[in-house]
Amino acid sequence: MDAAAMNALLAKQKAAHLRDGEPSAQVRIDRIDRAIALLIDNRAAIEEAINQDFGSRSREATTFTDIAASIGPLKHAKENLAKWMRPEKRKPTPAILGLFGAKAEIRFQPKGVVGIISPWNFPVNLTFGPLAGVLAAGNRAMIKPSEFTPATSELMAKMFAGAFSEEEIAVVTGGPEVGQAFSSLAFDHLIFTGATSIARHVMRAAAENLVPLTLELGGKSPVILARSADLDVAAARIMNGKTLNAGQICLAPDYVLTPKESLEPFIAGAQASVAKMFPTLKDNPDYTAIVAQRHYDRIKGYIDEAKAKGARVIELKPDGEDLSQQEHRKIAPTLIIDPSDDLKVMQEEIFGPVLPVKTYSGIDEAIAYVNKGERPLGLYYFGSDEAEREKVLASTTSGGVTVNDVIFHVAQENLPFGGVGPSGMGSYHGVDGFREFSHAKSIYRQIKADKPLQQMRPPYGPAIRKYLDGQLKR
């Protein structure tokens, strides 16, 4: 689809929005129900398409992370949207106007047409997840899925076309040129999930039409292991988060900071947990391949550079398999111990199953290390020392935090999910998603009696001066 056709489609959706007006709760629920049905009815096809796109990805992992994890937000929105739609009462100011009968409220109005640019790592979830808030807020949507997962993108195009008119939801497929044109459209709101480098281009394009943005990006999400942490539990949870989807997750732990004396026990715990989850890797359908050759080469480049510069590199291959010759692009979970900060693995978001582990002496040193980098999407603290935990939470800034695990804060529908600075702007999930994709319209109803207002008009006299003197007191 070229730019002219995309503009025509956007115009068609905007015209339908104006023609039909603000949708009722029943209409919104019907659209959400149709989205849920698409996920349930196409489960096998989704599993197959994503497996095809990755070369090897567990069907169970796909159902867990892409299908079930999408149905949850949709059901949550369906159950709560009628409550979210209610006007929110506010107190008038100055308060005396309220005594005379003035009213103030906020009404949440659909923005209109929302563009969704979704990534390849969880192509279904990161389309349907935002869609929960978009539909709950009463909007229509145009979706541009990733060209890196072509089978899944084409499947979603067919799925939506079979359940929605293109006036409601439309899918636009294509490569970078299509994506660039899509991000230049005059949407009423645009949400982009992906790399920070691409987000800069999206933001520039959206700025031409002053399109409000939600950017869900990434960054180097740190793990701080405290001296009070249960190392075996921590290692198991960290490595589960790092090996899920082979680390191709925006919230995957990107590096670990551990006390020096805990380093070797953590390494042993990581080895044991990987061996338990993945006794083999090469032909194990539970272990995901890297999505594309260029990403495989990039991640291998991190490992090769670390080895060349003398870092201690530990490949976690329980069966000792040779992965140099394989049908798919699998990389073993790999620890890089105390890497220097000039390595690319410490400068770029890894997005793969490689985990640097650095040591620290005191918690202040760990906090300072986190703070010298850009603000990440997630931060993870393991430990039972409440005072230390609160110090870490108060002294660092990240999009969100999970304590004593990784990634889990993204699964909380009652918490907003989003980044800060280079890791994103805006947030969604639950009521926060509904509000992100709504226009909060302020409405003030003036009092009927005119006499109290007359003192604000010329000619000014003692009454207005008395009022102003009262306002200027400390």
TrEMBL record:
One of its GO terms (biological process) is aldehyde metabolic process. GO terms for molecular function: aldehyde dehydrogenase (NAD+) activity. Keywords: NAD, Oxidoreductase. GO terms for cellular component: cytoplasm. Residues 9-443 form the Aldehyde dehydrogenase domain. The keyword Oxidoreductase applies. InterPro entries: Ald_DH/histidinol_DH, Ald_DH_C, Ald_DH_CS_GLU, Ald_DH_N, Aldehyde_DH_dom, Aldehyde_DH_NAD(P). The active site is at E216, C250. Belongs to the aldehyde dehydrogenase family. This is Aldehyde dehydrogenase. It comes from Phenylobacterium haematophilum.
